[in-house]
Amino acid sequence: MTRPGSGLRPFSIKAKLGTLVVISVFITTGLLIVALRTRTEFRFITVFSVIATLLITQFVAHGLTAPLDEMRAVARSISHGDYTRRVSGAGRRDELGDLAQTINRMTDDLEAEDRHRKELVANVSHELRTPIAALRAVLENVVDGVSAADPETMRTALKQTERLGRLVETLLDLSRLDNGVLAIKARRFEVWPYLSGVLKEANLAASQRRLSSGSGNHSRTDVHLHLDVSPPELTAYADAERLHQVVANLIDNAVKHSPPHGRVTVLARRGEHPESLELEIVDEGPGIPEAERHRVFERFNRGQASSPHGPGSDGGTGLGLAIARWAVDLHGGRIGVAESTRGCRIQVTLPGEARTQG
Predict the structure, then answer these.
(1) What is the pLDDT of residues 276-323, one digit of tens each?
(2) Rounded CA separation 189/166 (Å)
(3) Residue 163 pLDDT class (50, 70, 90 cuts)
(4) Model confidence pLDDT, tens digit, residues 37-96
(5) End-to-end CA distance of the chain
(6) Nearest-5° Cα angle at 322, 321 to 326
């Protein structure tokens, strides 16, 4: 069975070249017949035949080479870092049209990567500047004698240092994501005590960070975290550290977008395969528009909301959900936004022992 598109298309270059040959043969044959009937010398017929064939060939060749010249100009612009130009022949119904579409898609991807790189520099610069400036101000006050190095002052400096540490840890995770150098270390564990510990850590970290701002981790203590594991003795097979990243980042995102005194629920159920796990993180926030659901796991995507809900929330670095997707992909699992009548519901499926090891 032939592959789709492998045959001769009516508007393909092969068809056009074949048509050119056929027309050239017809012209030459017709001129020869005219020469025989009118007793015209063959040298004149040969000249006319060559001229007619060259004119037709020039016309066809121009239609084939003009798009290639444009593609070469676009490729040169891309090599110089200009991703704004596009090839205009993407609507052609031949191989050059396919090539134009491919170049345009490649340019779109390169433009997106360049935008993400610039966003990375801008976001990291902003995230680093604030804690460094605060830490510098605290230390300058201590050195200049404006304030004493008492426990309260040192706690303020410690909070900013911890904030820097969290940002560096996030950037290291991003580096591992890009390089793909991190393998999972899966083991079997009980789901209830494990997730209970993750939720307690989230609450404790929020309380400790309540006075800090822009850390990329929530500092709200008004949102109630609820855990629902069924059956209670449920076990799963996964990398506990990577799964911690997934759950912590999803909880962090859900809390940021929850209304005041809202509720975030973490549900865990047995999956289809042995030791597999299905997780759901549900909040009561505004939800995610359907048109944006395919983008929420992209890097630096902070959604379209102008400001998160509730006190102590912030936009973060836009890396949490991207890291969550990376950790799920390492397990060979799936993560996505599910339909929900209220708020946002994110589903995570981990494949279990056999598929994780495979």
Answers:
(1) 999 999 999 888 888 777 778 776 555 544 444 444 344 455 567 877
(2) 27
(3) confident
(4) 776 666 777 777 778 777 777 777 766 777 788 888 888 888 888 888 888 876 776 777
(5) 32
(6) 115
Residue 248 sits at the vertex; the CA angle it makes with 246 and 254, to the nearest 5 degrees, is 100
- DSSP letters, 101-164, are HHHHHHHHHHHHHHHHHHHHHHHHHHHHHHHHHHHHHHHHHHHTTSS---HHHHHHHHHHHHHH
Output the CA torsion sign for 302, 304, 307, 310: negative
Q: For the sheet containing 277-282, what is the strand order?
A: 224-230, 263-270, 277-282, 345-350, 334-338
SS3 of 282, please?
strand
Q: What are phi and psi of 38, to 5 degrees?
A: -100, 0
Residue 178 CA to residue 169 CA, distance in Å, equals: 14
